[in-house]
Amino acid sequence: MKSVLEGRPALQEVIDQIQEVTGYLWQKGWAERNGGNLTYNITEFVDEQMRALPPISGVLQIGKTLPNLKGCWFYCKGTGKRMRDLSKNAMEAGAIIRILDDCASYEIVADKCIMPTSELPSHLSLQDYIIGSGSSYKATLHTHPIELVAMSHIRKFCSGEVLTRTLWSMIPETLAFAPLGLGFIPFALPGTVQLADATLEQIGRYDVVLWEKHGTIAVGLDMMDAFDQTDVLNKAACIYKTALQFGPEPEGMSPESMAEIQTLFKLPKTRVL
Ligand SMILES: [Zn+2]
Predict the structure, then answer these.
(1) What angle is formed at CA 133 by the lines to CA 128 and CA 134, rounded to 5 degrees?
(2) Distance from the CA of 257 to the center of ligand 1, in angstroms?
(3) Between the CA of residue 263 and those of 167, 256, 260, what are the distances in Å?
(4) Span 84-130, pLDDT tens digits
(5) Measuring CA to CA, which of 33, 113, 168, 209 is 20 to 30 A from 273?
(6) pTM exceeds 0.90
(7) Active-site residue, selected from the candidate residues 6, 119, 212, 260
(8) Rounded to an integer, what distance in angstroms lies between the CA atom of residue 258 and that of residue 164?
(9) With contact defined as beta carbons under 8 Å apart, do 83 and 36 qualify?
């Protein structure tokens, strides 16, 4: 069967980048088995021919009504699929869906009838928020960065404020590239409305949000951007861990040095949409 990517180089490019990123997730050890999930808003690449494609699934329920998603199309990782397989062929480990006019249901359109991630309600809620806030962000990424998850097992780090200050103080680049820092959400069961709502509440204020004893969720202009945001913060956690192995509590840059960097680089204090 012909792939929907054929003859659509711009869409192919997006899928290629998703494959590249999921390869990195596996290499970094952040994506064991079927761990992690992602979505990408591909609506801008959908032409008349694609719009006319018949569904290859029945009508499926999102579980929430998301009014900003009317007419939107997404690539979604498939439930139970591995990131390392997705990195080789995204259309064998995920599918393209379109949201129906009731904004509460969707159909799978291409290439294969692969059911989306069980975290679809959380990811689509974020996509709904992104569109509603007038943002040009397209990607949502949930993964299990080892050092950040490990920090969430230590009580003193279970605060967005403490985590952000600690990570920012490791190298100037963390402050420069993750100027909003890392949010923190106390443990909640995966896939619940409670976790989705808490994430929504924090993603507007932080670059990335850490779910206690679980993983991160990031939004990005594209999938590489969402990955970079997560990677920058996890790198700082790696430096903290390494410094700790050399001696007592790592010193970190002083609050004065960090304030100077914020001023020098005119770093934003709120998300630039
Ligand atoms: Zn997870």
Answers:
(1) 100
(2) 35
(3) 18, 11, 5
(4) 999 999 999 999 999 999 999 999 999 999 999 888 988 999 999 99
(5) 168
(6) yes
(7) 119
(8) 12
(9) yes
- What's the CA-to-centroid distance between 121 and ligand 1, angstroms? 14
Contact 130, 219 (CB under 8 A): yes
Q: Is 119 in the active site?
A: yes
Name the band, by pLDDT with cuts 50, 70 and 90, for residue 273. low
Q: How many residues does the chain have?
A: 273
Cα R_g (the chain), whole angstroms: 19
Could you count the other beta carbons within 10 Å of the beta carbon of residue 146?
Answer: 16
In our burial notation (b when 16+ CB lie closer than 10 A, e otherwise), range 189-225 reads eeeeeebbebbeebbbebbbbbbbebbbbbbbebbbb
Place of tokens 């659509």: 8
User: Is residue 238 packed enough to be buried (19+ CB in 10 Å), middle (13-18) or exposed (0-12)?
Assistant: middle
Task: Report the topology of domain 9-264.
Answer: L-fuculose-1-phosphate Aldolase (3.40.225)
Distance between Cα 159 and ligand 1 center (Å) = 20
Structure confidence by residue, pLDDT tens digits, 204-227: 899 999 999 999 999 999 999 999
Mean pLDDT along residues 67-84: 97
